[in-house]
Amino acid sequence: MRHLLDTRTLSRDDAIRILDTAEDMAAAQQREVKKLPALRGKTVVNLFYEDSTRTRISFEAAAKRLSADVINFSAKGSSVSKGESLKDTAQTLQAIGADGVVIRHPASGAPERLARSGWIDAGVLNAGDGTHEHPTQALLDAFTMRRRLFGSGAGVSDASGSRGRDLDGVSVAIVGDVAHSRVARSNLWLLNALGAHVTFVAPETLLPYGARDWPVKIHHSLDAALRDERPEVVMMLRIQSERMHAAFFPNEREYARNWGLDDARLERLVDEAIVMHPGPMNRGLEISSRAADSERSTVLEQVANGVSVRMAALYLLLSGEREASI
Q: Which pLDDT score is estimated for 249?
């Protein structure tokens, strides 16, 4: 594959290919020696214009476990803070021989601009752009759902050669600040491709413009959504106050009372339901400590699975002959 820029244009077959490759990577991580030689001699640049802990460290670990050389670039303290453009930065990366660029940027569309510009020959992987998309987060979420709902071997070949199952018919509720969440958007498109049924739960002020035209159910009441949709997956989103420039709800206490996953709502989930959160969590606001730390919670599994999924994405991006963008 040439680039990984979004999930909206990712086909079902390509998504399952990434998830199944991630199963192979996860299996390799159970060995005593976790490192694989697959990307030896390749150089991966983590180009982060936004602060991140989980995503940057996850990509760094993934690249190193594939034996790639890793260069971490932070906009703070770099020439970017002196006014250097994305084009000039890209040409610098081209000059040092970058094979892959993992980019996180506050502007929606920046990864696609980098990939389509002709400034650089490297494969580009979107690690989050503005409020647009975060494809590897959605992939690791789907990977976690498959494993928790269908078993850790969900992607392992059976005797007939089948690679396992997708998420057909699974009910997923994505709750909270959908308007500012690239995670919600990427999950919607990917989960629809994999056959899941997605519901957004949020106040009207925290829904994206045009969301009612998307393939998604919408609820304004979390209690009603839990009762009517009976979700097997409840994904809580962080309130992204750093992206808010207006009052989207009266106060935090009202938000927690109406849209937070508190202890009482946790008890009302269906027996097989799991609780997800992309992190970082605001405990006591969108999720209670009991819900975050319960056996239903997959928060730490998502972090661990992120390494396997990003190993798969980097491997498919950089090994062998790169194909058309997916």
A: 67
Q: Is residue 273 part of a domain?
A: yes
Question: How many Cβ atoms from other residues are within 10 Å of residue 263's Cβ?
Answer: 11
On whether 104 is known to bind a ligand per the annotation, the reply is yes
Contact 127, 59 (CB under 8 A): yes
The response to whether 165 counts as a known ligand-binding position is no
135 annotated among ligand-binding-site residues: no
Core vs surface per residue 289-298: b (16+ CB within 10 A) or e: eebbeeebbb
Instruction: Look at residue 177 and tell me if it is in a domain.
Output: yes
Task: Confirm or deny that 279 is annotated as ligand binding.
Answer: yes
Structure tokens at 258: 């109406």
Residue 51 confidence (pLDDT)? 81
The answer to whether the annotation marks 238 as part of a ligand binding site is yes
Examine the domain organization and report whether 123 and 142 are in the same domain.
Answer: no
Nearest to 214 by CA among 224, 201, 200, 225: 200
100 is in an annotated binding site: no
Domains of the chain: total: 2
* Residue 214 confidence (pLDDT): 96
Domain that residue 56 falls in: 12-133+304-318
Distance between CA atoms of residues 314 and 127, nearest Å: 12
- Report d(CA 262, CA 276) in Å as an integer: 14
134 annotated as ligand-binding = yes
Res 225: pLDDT = 98
pLDDT profile of the chain (326 residues), mean per 10: 94 94 95 93 95 91 97 72 80 94 95 94 96 97 96 53 69 95 97 97 92 96 97 92 57 88 97 95 93 97 97 93 46
The pLDDT of residue 53: 84
The answer as to whether 184 is a domain residue is yes
The answer to whether position 323 is within a domain reads no
Flag whether 55 is marked binding: yes
Same domain, 86 and 207: no
The per-residue pLDDT for 248 is 65
- Do 95 and 217 fall within a single domain? no
Residue 312: CATH number of its domain: 3.40.50.1370
Same domain, 249 and 314: no
pLDDT at 325: 43
Q: Can you read off the two tokens belonging to residue 86?
A: 């994305």
